Amino acid sequence: MSQKNIFWRNDSLTFIEVRKTTDSAEPYKTHIHYDYLSICVVETGKTSMTHQGKDHVITEGMVIFINPSEAHSCTPIDRVECSYWMIHLDIDWCLDIQKEMFGELDSYIPINTYSTNDKKIYGEFSDICRSLLQLDDICEIESEFINLVSTLFGKYCAREQIEVSNVVVQEVANYISSNMFVDLSLDCLADKFHQNRFHLLRSFKSVYGVTPMAFQMNLRIEHAKEMLRAGKSIADVAQETGFTDQSHFHRIFKKYVAATPGEYIKK
Predict the structure, then answer these.
(1) 193-209 burial by CB neighbour count: b if 16+ within 10 A, else e?
(2) In the prediction, which pLDDT does 38 show?
(3) Nearest CA to 176 among 132, 133, 210?
(4) CATH architecture for residues 5-156
(5) Cα–Cα distances in Å, from 139 out to 6, 102, 154, 227?
(6) What does the pLDDT average to over 163-175?
(7) Domain 162-267: which topology?
(8) Would the pTM count as exceeding 0.85?
């Protein structure tokens, strides 16, 4: 029997806690989170939510935002079981992102809506939560979270954002290409090119469609494919392309190619 509740925490990503709840009809009494922004990704079910004194019906495909100090409760309708992801983000971490996006701030700017039906935001949150539970690449996951949360703040917090020039973005891309097997972090790239990491992340993705870490991983996978086609063993390719072990390589390769390395080399 599968667990109804799974809680995820990691010493490398101390700003986040993730809860995965499956097929639960348990209600939540009115409560408040003082120290974090909560984001709920609803996979299945239908529930009644009271948020700041107002009642809402929450259904699958919705993403719910609960700012710090906002009172809320949830009760499944007709005891229908619900499945959802609950993401808790440290408010100081959120404020740091907002400061780097918008300039100096005295306090956190609340998200100005309680929900969205945006399919892209829903899909990206679902994907990143699954990656956490599968223990995929931590650096890539962190940059994806930064990108996704800054997208939310850019869309639902009305402030002007700063962009990084395309010339700098191209220099970053060239540097990553020349160092594709080196473990690069977003902080490392921001320091090297003297950029704000959040502006660099958003500007890079606006040009290439992916984060710098995902860009690097794509380069590694493409190089791995070349090596596999040349007849190198899967174990050697995993080691030479910078993966921690063969299992890690297998998991990431399948994520990008939709096939395992073994399937890829079969004729």
Answers:
(1) eebebbbbbbbbbeebe
(2) 94
(3) 210
(4) Sandwich (2.60)
(5) 22, 24, 22, 24
(6) 84
(7) Arc Repressor Mutant, subunit A (1.10.10)
(8) no
